[in-house]
Write a structure and sequence with these properties.
The protein is mostly helical. The chain has one domain. It is built from 14 helices and no strands. Helix 7 crosses helix 8, helix 7 packs across helix 9 and helix 10 packs across helix 12.
Length: 333
């Protein structure tokens, strides 16, 4: 718990620093615009983003029910919300998956099965995200909707390639038990060589166990092709709705901009993909820069900075705080 609190504090300090950088050059105008915010549209934006998460939870539930039939959709939704908290306070959103395995194990799901479930859900999410990204890229290439400057192009394709590389590595590791073990040994040796770990043999055994569990989980996943296909379709809908919720941020500010829901979802996804490459909790810095860059096609100056602040509140600060509250209630109950 102490470690979680310290990470939360770091995220808070980084967020305050970013707020200062955004506000410092246009403070008065931004505050004046934020005073006109319509709370109704903020509530709608938060609600729609949670609807997107809820739909993604349906996909997650399908996978969980392969190992625990009585695991409810409400529990899955709650698990996803709390996962937002752990993803938000860890670099590259790396804290959510261990938490999911821990929570599933508490629900009497074997660790090996819980690992399989989390890996399967992650792969379904990654495939869905990559599919939407490719579709949006093709649409943008044809109709030239969102502008890419040099830095945004580099960040976006680095994020895209990172997500693609994760898929490829997971597929290779899941297809070969021997290769997985070799990777585990190599990782342990490198960590021991640079003095990050001291008990090399123990870490090797642990990583080898994880690689075997991953291999078994991947093999199990390939048997459930119907569930995987259904999960991908559901995730595509959920992810699309989540990114489209940004349109209500601009409505809350009553900004008269020429942008429809599809264009907004496209710019939001591009910003997410480009910002996710930054190895800081919440992608702080990268997300703000990417949002400002991709949405500059539709707005500029103080109005765009105001939209950026609301967007980060709705998509990052509020989910992390709300997830943290649910986590603490969960721990106390």
């Amino acid at each position: 718990m102490k470690n979680i609190k310290s990470k939360s504090l770091i995220v808070l300090l980084i967020t305050i620093g970013m707020l200062f950088l955004i506000l410092k050059d246009d403070f008065t105008n931004i505050i004046d615009i934020l005073k006109t915010v319509n709370p109704f549209w903020i509530i709608i934006a938060i609600t729609v983003s949670f609807i997107g998460t809820f739909i993604q939870s349906i996909s997650f539930k399908l996978i969980i029910n392969q190992h625990k039939e009585d695991f409810s959709l409400l529990k899955t939704f709650r698990l996803n919300i709390i996962t937002n908290f752990f993803n938000g306070i860890t670099p590259l959103a790396s804290g959510g998956h261990p938490f999911q395995i821990y929570e599933l194990h508490k629900e009497k799901v074997k660790v090996a099965d819980a690992t399989s479930v989390v890996i399967e859900n992650f792969l379904v999410y990654q495939i869905s995200l990559m599919f939407i990204s490719i579709v949006f890229l093709l649409i943008n290439y044809i109709f030239n909707i969102v502008d890419f400057n040099t830095t945004l192009t580099i960040l976006f394709y680095l994020g895209f390639l990172l997500n693609l590389l994760i898929l490829i590595v997971l597929y290779v590791l899941g297809s070969s038990k021997t290769f997985g073990k070799r990777i585990a040994v190599s990782i342990a040796k490198v960590l021991a060589k640079i003095k990050i770990i001291s008990d090399e043999s123990r870490i090797i055994n642990k990583l080898e166990t994880v690689s075997v569990e991953f291999y078994n989980g991947f093999k199990e996943m390939k048997k459930n092709k119907k569930v995987i296909f259904q999960g991908i379709l559901i995730q595509i809908v959920g992810i699309s709705i989540y990114f489209a919720s940004t349109i209500f941020v601009f409505k809350a500010l009553a900004l008269n901009i020429d942008m429809n829901v599809g264009e907004c979802a496209m710019a939001s996804l591009f910003a997410f993909m480009a910002g996710s490459i930054v190895p800081i909790p919440g992608g702080t810095g990268g997300m703000e820069y990417s949002f400002f860059g991709f949405f500059s096609t539709f707005a500029s100056g103080a109005p765009l900075k105001s939209a950026l602040l609301l967007w980060r509140f709705i998509t990052f600060i509020f989910p992390v705080v709300f997830g943290g509250i649910l986590f603490n209630i969960n721990e106390e109950s």
